[in-house]
Amino acid sequence: MISYLDRIQIPLLLLPFILTVNGAAQEKSNAEPQIGDAAPEWKALTGTDGKQHSLSDLSAADVIVVCFTCNTCPYSVDYEDRLIALAEKYAASNASVKLVAINSNGVPVDSLENMKKRATEKQFNFDYLKDETQDVAREYGAIYTPEFYVLNRDRKIVYRGAMDDNTKAEAVKVKYVEFAVEAALSGRNPEVTTTGARGCAIRFKRKRR
């Protein structure tokens, strides 16, 4: 039992690890991949483009950035422009970097149809996929939206966590994901491999036991 005094010392962003409200948060799996492990495969996830997408479809990419996000979390919404800018940056370069956004939220507002509306409104320039079963989020051990993973050429996870060091775009000083991408493109591991993601807890559906 966590006492009141203990609870108030716990950072707010860690609460989803402790509290489960209406199935909103899910405990991390003991088998979740670690830095240096192979990234879990995803297959036949439906995108807002109406097509089926698999990780294997991206075999030509040297680096892949996976972002677990959604339509509803204020943090995710705030990061949408940064995702668009990241995709634009690498589309304009010679680097083969692919950004993929995955929505695992199990609430009606995050349905595929609503995802399509959001993708059209914001003119997303990256794949936006629906993880209907939520299995992909569970396999990655994703907890928050947004939460980022950078995969190298061998599809090993070289970075996991926040996109940058500040939720306010104008105050960002360290771009963790971009640093990890540049390191992976150079065949190196980034100096920082893990940070604490900031955002809302993924709304996992309860599974009957």
TrEMBL record:
PROSITE patterns, sorted: THIOREDOXIN_2
InterPro entries: AhpC/TSA (IPR000866), PRX-like1 (IPR047262), Thioredoxin-like_sf (IPR036249), Thioredoxin_domain (IPR013766)
The Thioredoxin domain, residue ranges: 33-182
Pfam families, alphabetized: AhpC-TSA (PF00578)
A GO term, aspect molecular function: antioxidant activity
Protein name: Thiol-disulfide oxidoreductase
Species of the source: Fuerstiella marisgermanici
Phylogenetic lineage: Bacteria, Pseudomonadati, Planctomycetota, Planctomycetia, Planctomycetales
